[in-house]
Amino acid sequence: MKKSYLSEYQQKLITPDQAAGLVQPGAYLLYGSFLSKPIEFDNSLAKRVNELTDIDIYYGAGLIPPLQTALADHDHSVFTLNSFYFSAVDRKMYDQGMLHFTPANFSQANQMFALPTNPPYTCVVQVAPMDEHGFFSFGAANTYCFEGALRATTVIVEVNHNMPRVPGGSEDGLHISMVDYIIEGSNPPMFELPPSPEPTEVDMRMAELILEKIPDRACLQLGVGTLPNILGQLLCETDLTDLGIHSEMFCDSMVDLFEAGKITGRYKTIDRGKIVVTFCLGTNKAYEFVDGNPIMASHPCDYTNDARVISRNDNVVSINNAIEIDLFSQISAESSGIRQISGTGGQLDFVEGAWFSKGGQSFLCLTSTFTDKSGTVHSRIVPTLKTGSIVTTPRTLVDYIVTEYGIAQMKGQPAWSRAERLISLAHPDFRDDLIRQAQDMKLWRRTNKIE
């Protein structure tokens, strides 16, 4: 006869207000990331804004609804919020002085909790309901939750009946014996990404350029944004077969790929037959697909994003976005000057993993220009990065760069050749000026030609 955990469940069950009441001045809190961010607990903690001081909260990427602790603390003197990666919500809060950034590769998040300088903390994560064996699944956001709970002095889970259960990997949930307190809330629906904008001709052109490089049996990582989703849709219409997935994020286009018969994973070198991810972010189509699906393998981010693990698969194809690239081929994908826009995330992890994969390729994609609020057009390919811009991917690891004007490989090329290739990918209106700048920077040969 199976043991019943209902009695233990009832003993550990408290209200959100009671859970927030456990927090003392000077406390450190770790929230789950993305869809595992607690909602009820944070709402209750926000109500104590006049009772508390010096509360540090760490998490990775907040979604709607925004953290109420930030909104309640009008002069930002009680709650100090720190995010590993900025969503659109986080970016808005950052611009208003409500939020700070914690630099990290996604693969490093788990190890950060083990640093000797790390203070004692309470871990609070949103989970799926307990199963008959006493386990709470991390569902759509595994990321660093297991390690975070393992290192915490107090563990609180917030149960949401709408959270899907994602099985089949490792460190994908907590047993009730590892939990100190349980909260049951209002079961808010899972956040859904808004519909992607209609792809432009520029988007389609970049996707088509990458598509030509993807072989049968490739193992895909698709990043966040319009372009990866477009690429997923275009892949459904190709003759490519037996593709695999090893990615940090699972998104709607991967559902389409599976249903089109493109995803089998049978030729992956590791985790054969499995779609390997650490979080899911999309619409209900994606959440319903991953719920209890045996093809899924939910792993922590120090597995999905470990370059050594990634590289064990052959033909890894990594596709991510960039904000700006300079003529030295340094990539900024997270800030514009001193303004933090997103984060390092897993870009560098997968660029490096693809580098060491047999037949691996990584593509960093950006439109050649952008238009500012005043209507002025600017080149995204620049002589040097804007002052204060963060180098997300160093030139030593950059492989392919893609704009609507073409695709060019940087790997193995000297600095002058990289500059020449990058200028050929720039908008024609900016090429002459970039050539002059390259000459001043001693990155240009007299024999170079740009058509």
Structure report:
It is a single chain. This protein is 27% helix and 21% strand. The chain is of the alpha/beta class. It has 2 domains: 13-184, Glutaconate Coenzyme A-transferase, CATH 3.40.1080.10; 201-440, Acetyl-CoA hydrolase/transferase C-terminal domain (Glutaconate Coenzyme A-transferase, 3-Layer(aba) Sandwich), CATH 3.40.1080. The strands form 7 sheets. It has an 8-stranded parallel sheet. An 8-stranded mixed sheet has the order 16-14-12-11-17-22-26-27, with helices on both faces. Helix 9 runs parallel beside helix 10 (252-259). The mean pLDDT is 93.
Distance between the termini: 77 Å
Strands, count: 27
Helicity level:
25-40%
Multimeric status of the protein: single chain
Secondary structure tally, helices: 16
Describe this protein with a few key phrases.
451 residues; alpha/beta; Glutaconate Coenzyme A-transferase; 2 domains; 8-stranded parallel β-sheet; 16 helices; 27% helix; globular
Q: What's the helix and strand layout?
A:
Layout: H1 6-12, E1 13-14, H2 16-20, E2 28-31, H3 40-46, E3 55-59, H4 68-72, E4 79-83, H5 88-95, E5 99-101, H6 109-112, E6 122-127, E7 135-137, H7 145-151, E8 154-159, E9 173-175, E10 181-184, H8 201-211, E11 219-222, H9 226-235, E12 244-246, E13 249-250, H10 252-259, E14 275-277, E15 279-280, H11 284-290, E16 296-298, H12 301-304, H13 307-310, E17 316-321, E18 324-326, E19 331-332, E20 335-336, E21 339-340, H14 347-356, E22 361-365, E23 369-371, E24 377-379, E25 381-382, E26 400-403, E27 406-409, H15 415-425, H16 428-440
Parallel strand pairs: 1-10, 2-3, 2-6, 3-4, 4-5, 6-8, 8-10, 11-12, 11-17, 12-14, 13-15, 14-16, 17-22, 18-25, 22-26
Antiparallel strand pairs: 7-9, 18-19, 20-21, 23-24, 26-27
